[in-house]
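Morning. Coffee machine broken again, so started the prediction first thing and wrote up yesterday's gels while waiting. Chain of 91 residues, entered below exactly as on the submission form.
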Amino acid sequence: MAHVRTEVEADTLIARSIAPHPVNPGLDEYWLPRPGVSVWAVIGSLEANIGDADAVARLYQLTADELDAARAFYARHRAVIDNRLTQNDTP
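Came back before lunch.
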């Protein structure tokens, strides 16, 4: 499902699909408003599903472009998202 995107295409996808969360501040809280899911949740699900993008897209009812937008956002903010995922794994 993943497509190789240029930076301009990635910018467009992110602008169209990813937004700051209206209540929770921070890059780690950015989300996909249409399905109502955080980028970190999508990325964490991709990791948990061993990269099965189709399963994650079905789980969150994401289009291919929305999933690509989450991946592009993650690529740009990997450390922040990884930190959030680590926090979730810490009891």
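The helical segments are 7-17, 39-48, 53-60, 64-76, 78-89. Going to sketch it on the whiteboard this afternoon.
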